[in-house]
Amino acid sequence: AGMIRTDEDEYFIEPLERGKQMEEEKGRIHMVYRRSVVAQHPTDVLPDIHTGESLLTGLGALSSLHDHIGTQLNETLRRRRHAGDNDHNIEVLLGVDDSVVRFHGKEHVQNYLLTLMNIVNEIYHDESLGVHINVVLVRMIMLGYAKSISLIERGNPSRSLENVCRWAYQQQKSDPSHAEHHDHAIFLTRQDFGPAGMQGYAPVTGMCHPVRSCTLNHEDGFSSAFVVAHETGHVLGMEHDGQGNRCGDETAMGSVMAPLVQAAFHRYHWSRCSGQELRRYIHSYDCLLDDPFEHDWPKLPELPGINYSMDEQCRFDFGVGYRMCTAFRTFDPCKQLWCSHPDNPYFCKTKKGPPLDGTECAPGKWCYKGHCMWKNTNQLKQDGHWGPWTKFGSCSRTCGTGVRFRTRQCNNPMPINGGDDCAGVNFEFQLCSTEECPKNFEDFRAQQCQQRNSHFEFQGSRHHWLPYEHPDPPKRCHLYCQSRETGDVAHMKQPVHDGTRCSYGDPYSICVRGECVKVGCDKEIGSSKAEDQCGVCGGDDSHCRTVKGTYTRTPKKLG
Q: Which of 3, 24, 248, 468 is most solvent-facing, going by the fewest CB within 10 Å?
């Protein structure tokens, strides 16, 4: 099987009689057909072809091998984001048919799938995407043989996708708050649901739709993570680079949404068009805004290749019997993973990508960023943890309620190699000097305006500045002052000092770092207690009474 590309079209080559052994002289009968014929599909469903496979035959091709593996040691390491408040979470149901389970084995398939989904998540964490997306596995279902063959119709990708989407809809938890309620379904199979080379099929802009938020993917090794990311990209609204947009120039550099998926572990990014298309639709995907539940999946090593040898990765990529190609020993095995079958050890194949980071490449060494390096724990991802709190500093005011701060740093240890930043805030504050100021003590906001009298010029002249409370509540913790001479209001381009009252109408709430902090009459942060009619904090008006009456007195007559 294979593909021929010309200027006019692409042609698929596929054996006509599956399963027959090739006769020594006659060979096997093949059929050839245009890709444009296959491409007659609904415009809102996109099939995807993956041609990331190269062949290397005999020792004479060694020079072409070196052409494929020339990457630089000092290439910039890929940066990853940590989760944050602006993240979108795609909660995923992963459906796996019997062909995948049998190939990997029941005892190993779960860890393999978790590793694969972790790679998909890392692809979506690449900063080139420009939107914070987490791919979160909430449920995994492994199907039996009978159900698997009923869902996948060989050579009929649209019907297979329809069956898979309907099946995923039937698995949905009715309660949206259920821990296993999913936003999106990913289905993996090793069955051939389309013509040779077809790796995925997905509806466009189907995310969050009850029936259309699903993808069908051909699983053939860890490089399938890029197919899964690509198909999910379609469901998020992304088009093929260069087809309907102007990003065709990025496909050769490994863009994830290239029409022919060529991205690899050492070379991938999201094109500028993918980011633009995603931002066009992401606001409409409300199902991605909730926080996912913690799921008790087995913990995996920091580097995915620690659990998988090169021989195993070759078997995943090309099938049973394939092992790392040993015909050539003059290159770094971590540049690209080359594989061969014992029946023809000099016929080596590659998917144009390196082994996984963490794959053992020599005694005491592992692959890291496409290079065989001495094992070093400093290369592992390390999440950040907080250091100790400092002591509280001095109070911002001497009376009338101020604040004092203490801080901590995310350095125990610091996050490195894509590790998560520390969760929570790096400062805390508490109220201090809560006693009332003397009656003759000048208003704190007025003091800050008055300090500008000697040096702040407005419209070419100096003024006597008076305090001004902005009518817009969010701006009241920024310093605005009003000219006594002209009545003009000027923004002093800085927040008021910590401890300044937010409003003259609220005697307790104060400004802290430019934000209004609610304070009750009990001098507690966040308290809603107020004085009652009797002037009692948190009272119920029972400590005083209203006296009503009429006072009548006749004035004495003069005389």
A: 24
